[in-house]
Amino acid sequence: MELDLEFFTNNVALVFLIIVSGALLLFPKILGANQKVISAKDSVILMNQENIIIIDVRSSEEFAKGKIANAINIPLDKLAENIGKLKKHQKKQLLFYCQKGIRSSQAVKLATKLGLEQCSSVDGGVDAWLKESLPMVLKA
């Protein structure tokens, strides 16, 4: 027992680093435990395998510039008032996206809170989508 205590006192910085590293690894999982975030490439696989509903939570102006095919636009600030439209499809997977993935993560949290269970967010949003050279329907 004396040897174990001596190790900890001699290596306080190392022990502290191990504890902090472990906490940082677990922290995002704790925050997003009920939230599913999937990559742009995995989103395409999901679209090809299942009949899903794609929801763009960007503003109407952003949506008008370009969108993922078959996406519907429900801006994040109007999501709560339009939740009835989505509840009609609650047995389907709902895929939310925005420009960077921040608003879509908030949309997943809100939709889950309002009773929708099968919700995912595109990690990195449109930026990640375009980085992977995935197709977008662009407006002129």
What do these coordinates show?
- This protein has 140 residues and is of the alpha/beta class.
- Helix content is 49%, strand content 15%.
- The protein folds into 2 domains: 1-31; 34-138, Rhodanese-like domain (Oxidized Rhodanese, domain 1, 3-Layer(aba) Sandwich).
- It has 7 helices and 7 strands.
- The chain has a 5-stranded parallel beta sheet with strand order 1-6-5-2-4.
- Helix 6 links the parallel strand 5 and strand 6 (119-122).
- The longest helix has 20 residues, at 12-31.
- The model is unreliable at 29-34 (pLDDT under 50).
- In CATH, the topology of the largest domain is named Oxidized Rhodanese, domain 1
Total number of helical segments? 7
CATH class descriptor of the largest domain: Alpha Beta
Largest pleated sheet: 5 strands, parallel
Terminus-to-terminus distance: 73 Å
Instruction: Determine the mean pLDDT.
Output: 86
Q: Indicate how many domains the architecture comprises.
A: 2
Corresponding CATH superfamily of the largest domain: Rhodanese-like domain
Architecture (CATH level 2) name of the largest domain: 3-Layer(aba) Sandwich
What topology emerges from the helices and strands here?
Layout: H1 2-10, H2 12-31, E1 36-38, H3 40-49, E2 53-56, H4 60-65, E3 66-67, E4 72-73, H5 83-87, E5 94-97, H6 102-113, E6 119-122, H7 125-131, E7 137-138
Parallel strand pairs: 1-6, 2-4, 2-5, 5-6
Antiparallel strand pairs: 3-7
InterPro entries: Rhodanese-like_dom, Rhodanese-like_dom_sf
Transmembrane segments: 12-31
Pfam families: Rhodanese (PF00581)
